[in-house]
Specification:
This protein is 28% helix and 36% strand. By secondary structure, the protein is of the alpha+beta class.
Length: 148
């Protein structure tokens, strides 16, 4: 069963060892970079590790952006050893259900790098829609909370 746990002193080292396949590295920031972002933006960041039962399989960095009235999914990754097992989709569903219960903001936003067809398909399959905004090579998508 997939569940999210906060990144802590006890699990951050294991989180840092998670990585995507080399062919995907240009599409996904390292977890070290994302944890540095979480540290700098500590007041708006919520870093979580993704577990399949007791096995750490991925990482997600969620940001609460008051000024945009949106949750922002800054980082989402599944370790290369655990991809193509449904963990990514299930983890996103768990995250979206959690945000639906919170309802602090009316939407969830995220970006994916153009060319990352797997990420695009995952997000579209979960109901995210392109906003029409592209920042350099990052495509912005969002999902309205009522749609969750």
């Amino acid at each position: 069963m997939i569940h999210l746990e906060p990144v802590t002193q006890k699990n951050y080292r294991e989180c840092l060892r998670l990585k995507v396949a080399e062919s995907q590295a240009r599409f996904v920031a390292s977890n070290a970079k994302s944890l540095a972002e979480a540290y700098v933006f500590y007041d708006t960041s919520r870093p979580y590790v993704i577990y399949a039962d007791e096995v750490m399989v991925g990482f997600v960095l969620l940001r609460d952006l008051d000024h945009l009235q949106s949750y922002y999914l800054s980082q989402f990754m599944i370790d290369e050893r655990y991809q193509r097992k449904g963990y990514g989709r299930e983890a996103m569903q768990v995250l979206l259900e959690m945000l639906n219960e919170e309802r602090h903001y009316p939407r969830v936003s995220l970006c994916y790098v153009e060319g990352s067809d797997g990420a695009k398909a995952l997000y579209e399959g979960l109901g995210f829609q392109p906003t029409g905004e592209v920042d350099e090579n990052e495509v912005l998508m969002e999902k309205v909370i009522e749609d969750i």
